[in-house]
Specification:
By secondary structure, the chain is of the alpha+beta class. The protein has 3 domains: 60 residues, Nucleic acid-binding proteins (OB fold (Dihydrolipoamide Acetyltransferase, E2P)), CATH 2.40.50; 52 residues, 5' to 3' exonuclease, C-terminal subdomain (DNA polymerase, domain 1), CATH 1.10.150.20; 43 residues, Orthogonal Bundle (Helicase, Ruva Protein, domain 3). It has 9 helices and 5 strands, in the order E-E-E-H-E-E-H-H-H-H-H-H-H-H. It has a 5-stranded antiparallel beta sheet. The longest helix has 12 residues. It is globular and about 45 Å long. It starts with a strand and ends in a 5-residue tail after the last helix.
C-alpha cells in the first residue's frame, strides 16, 4: 500500500495532478486545499496518500497535510459518503472549520457542500462528532496563474459536483482579473458555502 510519495510535480489539471517519483508518473486526485499549496510544476513535493482499491479500479488521493488525509478517511467511514463528497468537503472547508461545523451540528452549512443532503449531513454529525478535532490548519495560499485559469476552475468545480451553470455563476461573481485557477476555485467554494471573500 502507498502511504506517502515524494517526487516532482509534473502536471496540474484540477482536481488531478501527476507526480513523478522513481521514474513513475503517479496520477493523484487532490482536494483544492492541497492544490492551493502545491509548488510550481517542476518542483519537488511530498504528499500523504490514500490508496483506494475497488473491484475494477485503483485510485490514489494526495494530501499535503496528514490532518487532511485523516479527515478524508474519517469521511469515507460515514455511510453514503464516497471519495467525491469527501474531496468536496476538504475543498470547501479547512479541517478546523469542518470540525467546528460537525461539533456545532451545523447541518445547514454541511448541506451546502455538493453531494451532501440533509440525511448525509446528519449522519456526518452523528458519526464524526467524537472523531473530529481542530488542528490549527489554515486556508492555504495560491500558486502561479495558469494559461486559462477560468476554464480550469470551471472544470474543477464541475468535477466537485457543481452544475455547469452554477460553477459559471460562482466564478463570474467572485473573480478578479489575474486570478489563478486555484484562487478562482477557492473564492467560488467560499461563496458557495456562504463564506464570501
Amino acid at each position: 500500500m502507498i502511504g506517502r510519495l515524494r517526487g516532482v510535480l509534473v502536471a496540474k489539471a484540477p482536481p488531478w495532478i501527476m507526480l513523478e517519483a522513481g521514474g513513475v508518473g503517479y496520477e493523484l486526485e487532490v482536494p483544492m486545499s492541497t492544490l492551493y499549496d502545491l509548488p510550481e510544476q517542476g518542483r519537488e513535493v511530498t504528499l500523504f496518500v490514500h490508496y483506494a482499491h475497488k473491484e475494477d479500479t485503483v485510485a490514489l488521493y494526495g494530501f499535503l497535510r496528514e490532518a487532511e488525509r485523516a479527515q478524508f478517511r474519517n469521511l469515507l467511514r460515514v455511510s453514503g459518503v464516497g471519495a467525491r463528497i469527501a474531496l468536496s468537503v476538504l475543498s470547501g472547508t479547512s479541517v478546523d472549520e469542518f470540525a467546528r461545523l460537525v461539533q456545532a451540528g451545523d447541518i445547514g452549512a454541511l448541506t451546502r457542500v455538493p453531494g451532501i443532503g440533509r440525511k448525509t449531513a446528519e449522519r456526518i454529525v452523528v458519526e464524526l462528532r467524537d472523531r473530529v478535532a481542530t488542528t490549527g490548519a489554515v486556508l492555504p495560499g495560491s500558486a502561479a496563474v495558469p494559461r486559462d485559469a477560468q476554464s480550469e476552475a470551471l472544470t474543477a468545480l464541475q468535477q466537485l459536483g457543481y452544475k455547469p451553470a452554477e460553477a459559471q455563476r460562482l466564478i463570474r461573481e467572485t473573480r478578479t482579473p489575474g486570478d489563478s485557477a486555484e484562487i478562482l476555485i477557492r473564492k467560488a467554494l467560499k461563496a458557495a458555502l456562504g463564506g464570501g471573500d
